[in-house]
Amino acid sequence: MKQIYLTHRFKKLTQLKIYFSFILICLATLVSCKKDTADTTNVTALSIVNASPTLSTYDVYLSDVKINSAALPFGGTIKYGQYASGSQTIKFTTAGRSESLLTKSISLTPNVYQSYYLIDRPGSLDGLLVTDDLSATSTDKAFIRFINLSPDAPALDLSITNGNSLITNKAYKTASAFTTITAGTYSFDLKDGGGTVKTTLTGNVLTAGKYYTIISSGLVTPASSSEHALGIQVILHQ
Asked: What sequence ranges are listed for the domain DUF4397 (predicted)?
């Protein structure tokens, strides 16, 4: 009788151990899931564009970590990378040097795409952080927006050459929302408020379902050969 009792008790203890082991595994899994969720949701996809209208090239640091693999020239871009959301410090230096030319605090929003544009001349460098809403999809339309990043330009319109205006009256450092355009090859004009064409860019292929930011860059009146004249740049978001 005693042997039967001990055997029964041993079985009960074994069952309890298995039960508590199962509970511990479940708790560990829940903690792991919560950690994974925190790790994947508190990030921002950030891209960088050099729209400062000179021959200078730059290195870019985010919270003291260099994020470019090669010097960033005028018109150069850094594709989206994932970075911790919240307050970050962005710093630009002359390529190969450590002294800051521009240091600013920026706020990265969780779970969104954002782009940071380096703008204006050396000595008055500034930056513009813009949120990129890339959520819509299309099988026959591309998505475009326009940002005026030319420091000495008036408010500008983006138009199809010999065609309709697409986005109008954008002052310096002002971005439009994304709008749709039929996929195809286009020539774009930048016009002032009086309708005068300031510059043109031809042969722009826009692919269905893709997002593009079109920027005015350079200067209406360059002070020297080291400054770029007003132009148009089409940037594919990737």
From this structure: 46-158
Asked if residue 216 has pLDDT above 60, the reply is yes
Strand order in the sheet with 65-66: 65-66, 58-62, 86-94, 100-108
Tokens of 36: 């994974």
Q: Taking 80 as the threshold, does the pLDDT of residue 150 lie above it?
A: yes
Q: Which architecture, in CATH terms, is 43-132? A: Sandwich (2.60)
- All residues at 6 or more sequence positions from 149 whose CB lies less than 8 Å from its CB, including other chains: 51, 117, 119, 128, 172, 173, 215, 216, 217
CATH 2.30.30 fits 136-238, yes or no: no
Query: Alpha-carbon distance 66 to 61, whole Å?
Result: 4
Residue boundaries of the structural domains of the chain: 43-132, 136-238
Q: Who's near 137: CB < 8 A, 6+ residues apart?
A: 209
Q: Do domains 43-132 and 136-238 have the same CATH topology?
A: yes
- Per the structure block, which two tokens stand in for 46? 């950030």
Q: Which residues contact 178 (CB under 8 A, 6 or more apart)?
A: 133, 134, 136, 143, 144, 145, 211
